[in-house]
Specification:
Length: about 120
């Protein structure tokens, strides 16, 4: 235990995660996470060409207009780089929470994506 004129600190064992209500969990945690994933766009953006990547909290969205098969290949390469990046930084992707959203006038273009040979759910 550490006593001070302004505060008292007690040590206790943390079995896992970040204690709820702690300064680390409420303020510093999200900031540290954003710093941790700051290089994510650099690993994917070159593959997207005219696309982009958007980050918010612990979510990331890859965006690409698919006009032809080459555009779809570029998006798949960006997804592959995202997977490689997450493996490199030991951040496991939850494939069950990954989706492809496709807005199109015609269904002739294939907009499917794969993560480690698993097809990502398509929401049209």
């Amino acid at each position: 235990m550490c006593n001070s004129k302004w505060f008292t600190v007690r040590w206790f064992a943390v079995l896992s995660g970040i204690p709820q209500g702690s300064i680390l969990g409420s303020i510093l945690g999200p900031i540290l996470f954003l710093i941790y994933i700051n290089d994510l766009p650099d690993s994917c953006i070159d593959q997207l060409l005219e696309g982009n990547i958007y980050k918010y909290a612990d979510d990331a969205k890859l965006f690409k207009i698919i006009r032809n098969k080459e555009d779809n290949k570029c998006l798949q390469k960006a997804v592959d780089h995202l997977k490689d990046w997450s493996d490199n930084w030991l951040l496991r992707l939850n494939i069950n929470k990954c989706n492809v959203v496709s807005y199109c006038i015609r269904d002739s273009l294939d907009t499917s994506c794969y993560i480690s040979d698993n097809m990502v759910l398509i929401i049209s």
